[in-house]
């Protein structure tokens, strides 16, 4: 298998060539099957180019060609029974009660080419292209649907003659990947940012590399590898908001999840103190939480290491740790250096911040007692906020100075707490909460702001968004529709849980609090 580092698409002379197609594959040489799909991709690009919807992917010809590669990758998945889109249907059915959001699936037949599949895929690609602009593409856009139907007419005719890509199928479903760390990581990287569902992660990795390269002290090959490895593991930038390991556990498991991928755990890049060697394995202590681990030598390049460079209790190691089949493994690059006074001060500061956040998590029970079992409340002004704050923190007197300016100058506060987020105060959004006990509710203001509580992950955390949806207090959120505001509201509310998961890049199964795991 080839190196899965990201290279730029060439798109020479405005066409898709085999080398461009190979950028989405885990092998280095194309064959007749790849040549077939390259020809399909160029036909798909021509259909997009001629449509009224084509410019939504971007103003450059390259943007259309990239969308065409993704759509053709989906077609290859369907024809080769890779299982990626099958998982999309399975998950949507389990979560939302329908095999696809947005569209009428009464005539839908799974496992073949359907216009509804193409509508959803085109919407995902278009939405990703417009995300930086803060725009939401309406899934019912008539030009989007017309493009999907034109693609369907072409791909449906090709479906009967399209070859299966057995090389790719064998790679995705290789049983050895469940026991081999290197095969598993390679497969995770492929799905995360090279397959057609990984187009958003690919863009994130490229942007992260671009920013990191401004640091002259960073070594480019090691840095690029480290960024790709870390983001490929943690990213949930796909249509199901699943990490690549969890996505793969479903693809490979078919009837039951592949446990090796399902149980993968990972840390962020964190500081560890080197304690010594046990054979070739490393003994490390996490400087944030004092957890000690054995880092398996199998995951490290021992030939590039000098054991004499690692001094117990004096060497600081920064790395991401991946737990695979019960073993702690190095993921990406390992940066080592002396544990200096400056490094100790920084670690201590980060640790204090983490301890403060953890102490806030302990407020969950106190908050629930104070609110009579309510997970969130709305207060209208600073006086009410100060009063609640004093009761929660067992303080007394005015404490406006403890609040940042956006709080001190705000009103209509929404207060909530969860075990994972701690106590959070958000100003100005209390007007959106359509509750009988909320004196701040303003229907007109809610029409303007409520949508953000569902589709803007920088506005409210995912657990709060799902709490509000479960309680039915965001009825004013809607999408503009050519069919009118009533239809726009009805359509959005029907698909609101999908929108919340998609835009927050989170799921109830993996990203919600343990206290509320049964909430739907």
Please provide a written account of the structure:
The mean pLDDT is 89. Strand 8 and strand 9 (422-426) form a beta hairpin. The two termini are 42 Å apart. The strands form two sheets. Strands 1, 2, 3, 4, 5 and 6 form a six-stranded antiparallel beta sheet that branches. This protein is an alpha+beta fold and 520 residues long. It has 22 helices and nine strands. It is globular. The protein has helices at residues 18-22, 32-49, 61-80, 84-96, 115-130, 142-159, 166-172, 181-193, 199-212, 220-234, 244-253, 259-262, 341-361, 363-370, 382-393, 405-408, 443-449, 452-455, 462-470, 485-494, 496-504, 508-511; strands spanning 265-266, 270-278, 281-286, 292-295, 315-324, 327-338, 376-379, 413-418, 422-426. Helix 2 packs across helix 3 and helix 9 (199-212) packs antiparallel against helix 10 (220-234).
